[in-house]
């Protein structure tokens, strides 16, 4: 299993709404994530909008992203979430994820 960490930046004025949206992620989105190898997926948010994401997957980060790219529900989710993120224009978060390099793991 590969451990993936990534960062994004949520607009500080949208933090509360971003949290509320994630209290009820669409069931079909959750199923699509599982189907494409997103396991133990977690998001962590700082008060300044820095978002750290973590998941484990049997393939690569790119494999996990490519699998979701083919899902209609992912397109709808990304369209809905795009206004929450700092970045250029209407880019989707899954196009702006900056993967982190793992430098230590206890095991």
Structure in words:
The structure is a single chain. With 107 residues, the protein is an alpha+beta fold. The chain has a single domain (2-99), classed as 2-Layer Sandwich (Alpha-Beta Plaits). It is 36% helix and 23% strand. The chain has a four-stranded antiparallel beta sheet, with no helix packed on it. A hairpin with a 4-residue loop joins strand 2 and strand 3 (50-57). The longest helix is centred in the C-terminal third of the chain and has 10 residues, at 72-81. The mean pLDDT is 95.
What is the domain tally?
Answer: 1
Structural class: alpha+beta
Strand order of the largest sheet: 2-3-1-4
> Architecture, CATH level 2?
2-Layer Sandwich
Quaternary organisation = single chain
Low-confidence stretches: none
Distance between the termini: 13 Å
Highest-level CATH class: Alpha Beta
Comma- or semicolon-separated keywords:
single chain; 107 residues; alpha+beta; Alpha-Beta Plaits; 5 helices; globular
